[in-house]
Design a protein that fits this description.
442 residues, alpha+beta, Creatine Amidinohydrolase, Chain A, domain 1, Creatine Amidinohydrolase, 2 domains, 6-stranded mixed β-sheet, 13 helices, 37% helix, elongated, binds glycine, binds manganese (II) ion
């Protein structure tokens, strides 16, 4: 394991903190039922700063003011041979210090007492207050333990910073190690979408297609899906977060699949929509090409200095015009945008930050004004995912009823503009139909 990126990030955070102590706990294990837990996933902030994979751990960073230099201190589970026989390897503090390159490592049992020592006479605490009540109670107890020693001259920190805001700003711009992992997550998910296009046929079930994704992800070294896959045939595509995935796929319907995987914590997030029988009908192609045109316009708007909102604005303009042309809406483009009538068929935003979390950390705005959207800069990663979802209605042309289309790619902002990380999943009608025809004719 290359510990250099984690070391660099801790140093960068220590510099941003000025003077004080940071406390970054990892996620707890969670019970699924009785004595079975959900698959364990570290907290994203903790992972970003340590790479340490075990539960019951917390990172403490102490700036140099009262030390001989800044320090990274990890608290983790002790080695325990009996537990390791049942549940697997534990690094223990000594192993963790060696493998993960922290300055000190101690048993998690020592955390409460040591935190009170470390907080004494420090001006500020950096912590995610409110995220987890159990950790909040421990941190408050440590603060109160320092306050109880005021007659001995000890002072507790008087300033509390939300550490998430500071680390979010770091996480918003990906480093080269993060980008490499995101490329792998993107490549694996693209291969899974190609596999789904080859496999899909009338009579298959949504869950059979889902199974292909789970296989392709795990087979290629992804640890988990980045979120529950959406495999939505026909009208189900108009349910934005459809995850039942239990219906048969019918001839003549579209299939919308939103599925991405996680590689060493980093997510991909891809949506493709294609015909179950391998050939788009006329109305399906009309809606599909409209969404693809909107996506092309949105991606063209991504470059350093543009705002986070620009791709959305570009996509909405194309979609609004298309909805008028297809007689889904009446009026002018400006009017349809002004009244937000387009939201009947396109009700979500065109993208979000992507990284350790599928809806990743980072501010979208720095104020309430129209021009207060985050500017794009090289290293930022975002999705571009316009859609059009047409539920039946007396005022809606019948040919479009129950057509739901979304096309989603993962895009990295570069100095020159942007790079699409998920190009290997076909999205032009001709390319999709060619791939599906290939698999049908051997
Ligand atoms: N798959 C979740 C999203 O597209 O935002
Ligand atoms: Mn997305
Ligand atoms: Mn998605």
């Amino acid at each position: 394991m290359d510990i250099a990126p984690f070391h660099r990030r801790r140093l960068s955070l220590l510099q941003r903190m000025g003077a004080g102590v940071a406390v970054v706990p990892t996620a707890p294990e969670r019970t699924r039922n009785r004595d079975t837990t959900y698959p364990y996933r570290a907290d994203s902030y903790f992972h970003y700063l340590t790479g340490f994979p075990e539960p019951e751990a917390v990172l403490v960073l102490v700036t140099s003011e009262l030390n001989d230099g800044p320090k990274s201190i990890l608290f983790c589970r002790d080695k325990d041979i009996d537990k390791e026989i049942w549940d697997g390897f534990r690094h223990g503090p000594d192993g963790a210090r060696e493998v993960f390159g922290v300055d000190e490592a101690h048993s998690i049992k020592e955390f409460d007492a040591k935190l009170a020592e470390l907080l004494a006479d420090q001006p500020s605490l950096w912590y995610s207050l409110g995220h987890d009540t159990a950790w909040d109670a421990r941190v408050v107890a440590a603060l109160n333990a320092v306050r109880a020693q005021s007659r001995a001259g000890k002072r507790a920190p008087t300033t509390l910073h939300d550490i998430r805001a500071t680390v979010d700003a770091m996480r918003l711009v990906k480093d080269t190690d993060e980008i490499a992992l995101m490329r792998r997550a993107a490549d694996i998910a693209c291969a899974a979408h190609r596999r789904a296009m080859r496999f899909t046929a009338p009579g298959r079930f949504e869950y059979e297609v889902e199974a292909g994704f789970l296989h392709e992800f795990r087979h290629n070294g992804s640890q988990y899906p980045a979120y529950p896959p959406i495999v939505a045939g026909g009208a189900n595509a108009c349910v934005l977060h459809y995850v039942d995935n239990n219906r048969p796929l019918n001839d003549g319907e579209l299939l919308l699949i939103d599925a991405g995987c996680e590689v060493d914590g980093y997510a991909s997030d891809i949506t493709r929509t294609f015909p179950v029988n391998g050939r788009f009908s006329g109305p399906q192609a009309d809606v599909y090409d409209l969404v693809l045109d909107a996506q092309t316009a949105a991606i063209a708007a991504i470059k350093p200095g543009a705002s986070f909102l620009d791709p959305h604005t570009a996509a909405v303009r194309v979609l609004a015009q298309g909805m008028i042309d297809l007689k889904l809406l009446e009026g002018s483009v400006d009017g349809v945008i002004e009244t937000a009538a387009y939201k009947r068929f396109y009700m979500h935003r065109t993208g979000h930050w992507l990284g350790l979390d599928v809806h990743d950390a980072g501010e979208y705005r720095h104020g309430p004004g129209d021009n207060d959207w985050q500017d794009l800069a090289p290293g930022m990663a975002l999705t571009v995912e316009p859609g059009c979802y047409i539920r039946p209605g007396d005022d809606v042309p019948k040919a479009f009823w129950n057509i739901g289309v979304r096309i989603e790619d993962d895009v990295l902002v570069t100095a020159a503009g942007c790079e699409i990380l998920t190009l290997d999943a076909p999205k032009k009608i001709a390319d999709i139909e060619a791939l599906m025809a290939e698999s049908r004719h051997g």
